Amino acid sequence: xxxxxxxxxxxxxxxxxxxxxxxxxxxxxxxxQANLVENLRVFISAARAREEPLDHVLLSGLPGLGKTSLxxxxxxxxxxxxxxxxxxxxxxxxxLAGILTNLGAGDVLFIDEIHRLPPTVEEVLYSAMExxxxxxxxDTGPSARSVKVPxxxxxxxxxxxxxxxxxxxxxxxxGLSEKLRPYGSADLxxxxxxxxxxxxVEIDEDATHSIASRARGTPRVANRLVKRMRDFAQVLGEGxxxxxxxxxxxxxxxxxxxxxxxxxxxxxxxLHRAGQPLGLKGLAVAIGEEEQTVEDVVEPFLLTQGWILRxxxxxxxxxxxxxxxxxxxxxxxxxxxxx
Length: 339
Ligand SMILES: Nc1ncnc2c1ncn2[C@@H]1O[C@H](COP(=O)(O)OP(=O)(O)OP(=O)(O)O)[C@@H](O)[C@H]1O
Ligand SMILES: [Mg+2]
Prior knowledge:
There is one protein chain. By secondary structure, the protein is of the alpha/beta class. The protein is built from 14 helices and eleven strands. The protein has three domains: 147 residues, P-loop containing nucleotide triphosphate hydrolases (Rossmann fold, 3-Layer(aba) Sandwich), CATH 3.40.50; 68 residues, Helicase, Ruva Protein, domain 3, CATH 1.10.8; 66 residues, Arc Repressor Mutant, subunit A (Orthogonal Bundle). The strands form four sheets. Strands 2-3-6-1-7 form a five-stranded parallel beta sheet, covered by helices on one side. Strand 2, helix 4 and strand 3 form a beta-alpha-beta unit. Helix 9 crosses helix 10. The radius of gyration is 23 Å and the shape is globular. The two termini are 16 Å apart. Bound molecules: adenosine-5'-triphosphate and magnesium ion (MG). The site of adenosine-5'-triphosphate has 24 residues, from helix 1, helix 3 and helix 9. Magnesium ion (MG) binds next to helix 3.
C-alpha cells in the first residue's frame, strides 16, 4: 500500500529537515522520559566530576522516540564532539577502524541501527569498547601480522529499534542501557506546543490536545502533524491552528477520533474477518504492509490502547476491538491525497 505514512514513527526523507529543525538541543528542551533523563544527568555529572568519559550507552526504543536526539545531547553535555554513523554503513572492519582511530578523548561515537552491524565489525568494536584498543591487520600473505593500535577513551552511544536482536555478549558491554517508552498525552501536548512555536504558527489549546492524541505516543508523528496542520491553517484558516482547523485537517488526513489511520482499520477488520488469531505474516499480507512495519508501527499502538492482544497462537481482537469491528464501516479507499 502506498499511502502517506503520516502515522509511521520511522523517518521518511521528508522528515530529515523537520527532525533537525525541531530536535531538542539539550536536556532542558528534551520533554518527558523523566527517569531516563534523570539517570543520564546523574551519570554524566559523575563522569565529568571524575574527568572520565561516560560509560557506553545503549538506547533502545521504537522509531521517532528521541534516540538520535539524546545521542547528540549526551555528546554536548560531555563537551565532546559527536561522530555519527550507522550499522549498515560500517561494512568492513576497516570502516570502523578508520573512525575509531580519529576519535578524540571524551568524544561520542554514535552508531545508529547498531543491531545491523556486520558480525566482523561487531568483533572489532568489542575490543575498542572494552580495552580502548584494536588489532589492525597489516600486509597480506606470509608477512601479514596484526598490530595493536591504542585508542582515545571515547563513549559509544548505540541506538536500536530492535534490542532483542543484539547478542547478550554485545549488550553486556554497555555500562548503561536505557529504554525509551511511548510518550504520554501531557508530554506530547508540550511537544506540539513547542513545535508550533518553532514553526511560527499559533495554535489553540484544544487543537494542541487533539493533535497530541493522534500522535501515537511518538514525537516525530506529533511534529509531522503540526507541520501538516500549519498548511491547513494557511490555506483554510487564518494562519492559526484553531480547533475547527485541526478537526477538519485531521479528518482530511483520514485520522479518526480513535486515532486510527487506514492501516489500523484494515488490520482490525482483517482480524475480525479471519475470526481466529493471525500471525504476523498473515496480518502483513492482509493490510499490504511489511511485517516490520506491522510490528514496529501499527501493532504497538493497537496493543497499548487495548484493541488487540498478542497470544501464543497469534494476534486477536480484544472485546473492545470486536465491538469496534462489528459496527465499523468497510474501509474507505485512500482519502483524497491532498498532500
Ligand atoms: N523528548 C523529546 N522532546 C521533544 N522533541 C522530541 C523528543 N524526542 C524526539 N523529539 C522530536 O522527534 C524527532 C525525532 O526524534 P529522533 O530522531 O531523536 O528519534 P529516533 O528515536 O532517533 O528515531 P529513529 O529510530 O527513526 O532513528 C526529533 O527531531 C525531535 O524533533
Ligand atoms: Mg534516529
